[in-house]
Structures are given as C-alpha cells and as structure tokens.
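Re: [help] complex structure
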Amino acid sequence: MTHPAIRQPKLEILSSPEAVADKAAAILSQKIASPDAVIGLATGQTPLPIYARLRAMAQSGLKVDHLRCFTLDEYYGISPAHDASYHRFLKTELFDPIGLPQDQWSVPDGLADPVTETARYEDEIRKAGGIDIQLLGIGRNGHIGFNEPGSDFTSRTRLVALSEDTRLANLPLFPQGDHVPTHALTMGIGTILEARSILMVVTGESKARALAEVMTLPPSPDRPASALKLHPDSIILADRAAAALLS
Ligand code: F6R
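Output below.
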C-alpha cells in the first residue's frame, strides 16, 4: 500500500483579518474568472469578509455565468429556509447578491434522508468534474467542515454528530430559544482532499492552538485540519492573532 507524501501546507501570515480576506478573495476571484470553475465554500464567521469582497467584485463586473458552487456542510434536521441554515447563509451572503442562479449552487439538504442525500451530493460533485478550490475555515477543536476530531481521513460526505464545543461555538447563530442541532451533513475529509486545491482561512486568537497543532504536529485524525498535510496544493492564510503560537 502506498501512503500519500506528507508536506507542510503553505502558510502565509497576514497583518489582519481584512488582509486575509483581501488575499482569499483575490485567489477565489481568479478561479471564478477561469472557465467552468467549481468552487467549494464554507460558512461561519471567518469567510464573511471574503464574501463581502466577492459581492463587491461581482458589482464591478466579475462574471459568474459558468460558476458552480458546492457548500461543505449543513445542519441535519433543519429546513433550508431556517434562519440558521447554511443554505440560507450562503444564499443571502453570496449566491443571491452575486446573481448565481439556484441551479449553479448546492448545499446538502438537511431534511432529506441522510444516506441518500450524502450519496447524491458526492455524485453531484463528481458529475460537476470535482472541485477546483475548496475554501475552509477551522474549528477551535481543529475540525474542517463538520469533521470533528476522530474523523477518518478517508471519510466521505455523511451524517455526523457535532461535538459540544462546536454546538456551543455556533449557539449565537441560532434564534433565541432554538437549540443547536446535534448532527450535521458534511463533506468527508476524503471528499475535501479530492479538491484540486485547498484554501484555508484562520483568524483570531481562538484558533491559535488549532493552527499551531496543524503546523507542528504530525497528521492525525485527532486533528482533522492536519489532513491538509496530505494534500499536494494547500495554502493557509492566517492573521497575526491566529499565528501567535507559531514561531
Ligand atoms: C463551516 C464549517 C466549519 C467552520 C468552522 C469555523 O461551513 O464547515 O468548519 O469553518 O467551524 O467557523 P468560524 O469561521 O465561524 O470560526
């Protein structure tokens, strides 16, 4: 059996979250401008300033005619119309404002049968020709997508249980009185690693430990983001606060 080579992701430390967003938006917009781009997107707080920049670029002429987008994950058991759904998040933050028609973007359906839906999602990505660039954030516990610590590096899109830490981190996004779902549908780590390139954005001191562990420790399912060390073309953009524990 052959093992993939271990390599250090390319790390760029930038002065601020704004600088990270500028650089990430420049990388993504360059891909978007290439014909038939297929882009994987993340939700959460970190990419918000990136989406603001992409909205502005679309206003000033960035074309999305042939763009195809896939979203990393969705909460299980909540409707696409729910205030905190990732479907709604990306539709509002990016897809509608840049004029991307509904048949050019996909989010796993949190209300569908999870086994059928996750197989269908993988199939849809395959039929689109695979993902050219996958945007990722990182959880405080090192998760990517909703692949929590312990997720196999060969895992595929599937139903997963959310850790208490992840549920707590996402609580502010839920309307008062609503509980954070216990489960989610997420692209697997194996699915993510099949993207032709990976762009991870990391900002703020709450991510410093997770980032330091990715950069300094060997790849391990205990640290899902360390799977980037098995990818031939990954780049991490971090601000100074997130890079504080790296010498
Ligand atoms: C979002 C996702 C998560 C987030 C991570 C960081 O689609 O899959 O892995 O990227 O939880 O979230 P923020 O950016 O809110 O700190």
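The longest helix spans residues 17-32.
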